[in-house]
């Protein structure tokens, strides 16, 4: 399955405006700056369809991409400390509103920075998905930033850190080297 005919569809700053849709949705969630837009661009084979930014907290909207059959949903990144409390509340409402609206979610791709232990926010999100029986995979981003020894060490550690989600696929990924992209594509195709 290929996603290179995907285009930008729409962007929403409030869940009240979210479109009712029966399109199957693949959802991308993770901390601000973790690499969601970079993964989306790799999947859609487009350089900058999804806005990549070195300033965290840029994507404060839910963005939809897709073709005539499928939707990719880019959720606003959580856990960025430097935004105001009211902005954080808006994000939380947006996320909650999205998951509470009656969607046709086929798979959630939860992105976690491979270099670090999953944050409390990451674990909260994984628990939320698991409790709500939403199918999900964990993509560990920025794998290119780790040298071999550190890479292998993180692979071992993460097995324990995410032990309770033992039936969830964990995929190391780099938008720089392309590591893991085929596996992510395969998981998405299977889910659809
Ligand atoms: P927000 O939309 O702000 O929540 O961020 P995001 O999760 O969409 O992250 P984005 O893709 O914009 O990437 C954030 C920064 O990390 C950018 O500077 C990217 O170039 C960098 N980055 C993303 N993925 C990778 C990766 O796999 N390897 C490396 N080395 N850098 C990456
Ligand atoms: Mg983004």
Topology of this structure?
Layout: E1 7-12, E2 25-30, H1 36-44, E3 62-66, E4 71-74, H2 85-100, E5 105-113, H3 120-131, E6 136-141, H4 148-161, E7 170-172, H5 181-191
Parallel strand pairs: 2-4, 2-5, 5-6, 6-7
Antiparallel strand pairs: 1-3, 3-4
This protein binds guanosine-5'-triphosphate and magnesium ion (MG).
The site of magnesium ion has 3 residues, from helix 1.
Protein model, in words:
32% of the residues lie in helices and 20% in strands. With 192 residues, it is α/β, with parallel strands linked by helices. It has a seven-stranded mixed β-sheet with strand order 1-3-4-2-5-6-7, with helices on both faces. Strand 5, helix 3 (120-131) and strand 6 form a beta-alpha-beta unit. The model has no long low-confidence stretch (mean pLDDT 89). Guanosine-5'-triphosphate binds next to helix 1.
């Amino acid at each position: 399955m290929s996603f290179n005919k995907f285009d930008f569809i729409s962007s929403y700053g409030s869940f009240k405006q979210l479109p009712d849709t029966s399109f199957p949705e693949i959802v991308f969630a993770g901390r601000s700056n973790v690499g969601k837009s970079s993964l989306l661009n790799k999947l859609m084979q487009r350089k900058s369809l999804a806005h990549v930014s070195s300033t965290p907290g840029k994507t404060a909207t839910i963005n939809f991409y897709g073709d005539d059959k499928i939707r990719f949903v880019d959720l606003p990144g959580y856990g960025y400390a430097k935004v105001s409390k009211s902005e954080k509340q808006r994000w939380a409402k947006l996320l909650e509103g999205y998951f509470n609206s009656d969607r046709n979610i086929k798979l959630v791709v939860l992105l976690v920075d491979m270099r670090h232990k999953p944050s409390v926010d990451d674990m909260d999100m994984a628990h939320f998905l698991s409790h709500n029986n939403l199918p999900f995979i964990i993509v560990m981003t920025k794998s290119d930033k780790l040298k071999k020894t550190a890479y292998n060490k993180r692979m071992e550690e993460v097995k324990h850190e995410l032990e309770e989600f033992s039936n969830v696929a964990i995929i190391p990924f780099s938008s720089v080297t392309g590591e893991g992209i085929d596996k992510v594509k395969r998981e998405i195709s299977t889910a659809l």
